[in-house]
Design brief:
Elements: H1 27-38, H2 42-57
Length: 68
Amino acid sequence: MSEITELDQPFQPPRHDESPSGSKLDPSALARLLEEWMQGDEAEQRETFEVLRRFLDKDRPEGRKLFP
């Protein structure tokens, strides 16, 4: 007889109020995290976008840039 492994079990998505690890989610902690992300350093965001823009356009033909 073969053993039943975790991979043989049907997938059960976590409940809406639990994280994948099974711990309860704290809505106020999530709100604080989102607020912290929204209050990021604007200069750092501009610098990060410039690096990202250059990287995305680096290998594209001159007339086909994503950010002309």
